[in-house]
Design brief:
By secondary structure, this protein is an alpha/beta fold. It contains seven helices and 16 strands. The protein has two domains: 123 residues, 3-Layer(aba) Sandwich (Rossmann fold); 115 residues, LytTr DNA-binding domain (OB fold (Dihydrolipoamide Acetyltransferase, E2P), Beta Barrel). Helix 2 runs parallel beside helix 3.
Length: 249
């Protein structure tokens, strides 16, 4: 397994030092950068593309929660872990699908356990997955017109596997291994797609229900959806997973 790249964002230099020493103790993790404020953290995430980001909540420039929202718009696959002295932000943290919420002062063993769970989940995401709900294929026909900087492209609806936010853009992947970047927002795409086939499983993802292969746990309130015909996968929230089960009962 390749080293998992970690970024630490905290305006307290002493806390960054503590977190750095903890990360260095855990096998398969490597620290790639530190940030003393939220704006710098976002810039470093965009530049370095880490696998894991530790965020304090109350930071200068941009708060940890605002930073988490920006990170999700860049890459929703990045694991976000909050490490803060304030428990009052826990609800907001899990609204942005935080993997964990550590309250200072915490024990070193608590952070190590979280990192070991991250490693386990990312390994599972790469290979070992659980079964998805049993589904009957749903018929879809027609074409979609995608607007982009070079004009428009027409795509068959049945070929669309996944639509996601990526690098602050909306990106569409097809069963023909094609990738399209469109100027439409994810919400605009959702409105144009047939709701009985395409499912908004997460604020950053829309999936084709006919192409779900399997689903596995990921984080405290989130699951991973693996799709047939692509190496890309999607996240699904706990609430949306329950909604998905009801669809196929």
């Amino acid at each position: 397994m390749k080293d998992l790249r970690v970024l630490i964002a905290d305006d307290d230099m002493g806390m960054r030092t503590i977190m750095r020493k903890i990360v260095e103790r855990v096998e398969d993790f490597v620290l790639v950068a530190e940030a003393g404020d939220g704006r710098t953290a976002i810039e470093l995430v965009e530049k370095l593309k880490p696998d894991v980001v530790f965020l304090d909540v109350e930071m200068p420039e941009v708060t940890g929660v605002e930073c988490a929202r920006a990170i999700q718009d860049l890459d929703p696959n990045i694991v976000i872990i909050f490490a803060t002295a304030h428990d009052s932000y826990m609800g907001e943290a899990f609204e942005v699908y935080a993997f964990d919420y550590l309250i200072k002062p915490f024990k070193v063993e608590r952070v190590i356990q979280t990192l070991e769970r991250v490693r386990e989940r990312l390994l599972a995401r790469a290979g070992r997955n659980a079964a998805a709900p049993v589904m009957t294929p749903r018929v879809v026909s027609g074409r979609m017109m995608l607007r982009h900087r070079d004009g428009v492209t027409f795509v068959d609806l049945q070929d669309i596997l996944l639509i996601q936010r990526e690098e602050r853009s909306t990106v569409l992947y097809t069963s023909e291994n094609e990738r399209y970047v469109t100027s439409d927002t994810l919400s605009e795409m959702e409105e144009r797609l047939p709701a009985d086939v395409f499912f908004r499983c997460h604020k950053s993802y829309i999936i084709n229900l006919n192409h779900i292969k399997d689903i596995s746990p990921y984080g405290r309130w989130t699951y991973v959806v693996r799709l047939e015909g692509t190496q890309h996968d999607a996240l699904i929230t706990h609430e949306k997973y329950e909604e998905l089960e009801k669809l196929f009962r």
